[in-house]
Specification:
By secondary structure, this protein is of the alpha/beta class. The protein contains 8 helices and 8 strands. Bound molecules: 6-O-phosphono-beta-D-glucopyranose and magnesium ion. 6-O-phosphono-beta-D-glucopyranose is lined by residues 16-17, 27, 50-55, 58, 83, 120-124, 144, 177.
Length: 221
């Protein structure tokens, strides 16, 4: 019985895109539109470099790939165009898009009395949570609107754990981005790598799927 166990950490800080939901693939599709327009080669491998990184920094990475130089005004226009395309994809999201196993795992963690926060670089995080029916689920949401530095800077995770009122040793971060694993380390917190970040040597733990968060290694009798 999982309910008779305790969780190894008092708090979990989840990244959003690519961890709770598959919006990382919407980011990919939206950036692909921009890259194609600029004639810059763009694939999933390059997309992995954008995980956890802010919108403007992501654009800089893509422009660097193509050795394309633009004015600030042109960059602003492209970032807006990307976000408009991304929001069109997000508009289609419904609670049905939330993986059943993710929802069950989140509910089980809540029953185990684990405090939970979102720590995301995205300015669309609140919108996405609303679309997925998760607006009121998390104890705290820290997103791209409340930070001045994106991952690997630890700001987002420091703010999230303060919001949970926990010490850094009491929290673990769940991330799909190498930059996110580094941010957790910079915050002095343990981390769990999933997806692309399950290849990161810096991750304290690596899991294959979200429900592995309920694995024996995280439960105390
Ligand atoms: C992160 C994504 O969650 O949010 C990045 O991993 C993205 O790929 C960043 O660039 C910013 O997102 P948004 O929604 O503010 O453009
Ligand atoms: Mg992510």
């Amino acid at each position: 019985m999982i309910q008779s166990k305790a969780y190894k950490y008092k708090g979990i800080i989840f990244d959003l895109d690519g961890v709770i939901c598959h919006t990382d693939q919407y980011h990919y599709r939206a950036w692909k539109i921009i890259a194609d327009e600029l004639g810059i080669f763009f694939d999933q491998k390059i997309n992995n470099k954008l995980r956890g990184v802010s919108r403007m920094e992501s654009l800089e990475i893509i422009l660097n790939e193509g050795k394309v130089k633009l004015t600030d005004k042109e960059k602003e226009a492209l970032a807006k165009k990307k976000n408009d395309a991304y929001r069109t994809f997000l508009n289609e999201l419904t609670p049905e898009d939330l993986d059943k196993k993710v929802l069950e795992t989140l509910k089980a963690l809540k029953e185990l009395k684990v405090k939970m926060a979102i720590g995301s670089s995205s300015k669309n995080a609140t919108f996405i949570l609303g679309k997925l029916g998760l607006s009121d689920f998390f104890d705290a949401v820290v997103d791209g609107n409340s930070i001045s530095e994106s991952k690997p800077n630890p700001e987002v995770f420091n703010k999230a754990r303060h919001a949970l009122n926990l010490e850094k040793e009491e929290c673990v971060v769940v991330e799909d981005a190498f930059s996110g694993i580094e941010a957790a380390r910079n915050a002095g917190m343990d981390s769990i790598g999933i997806g692309d970040a399950s290849k990161s040597d810096g991750a304290t733990y690596k899991i294959r799927e979200f429900s592995d968060l309920l694995g024996e290694e995280f439960l105390i009798s």
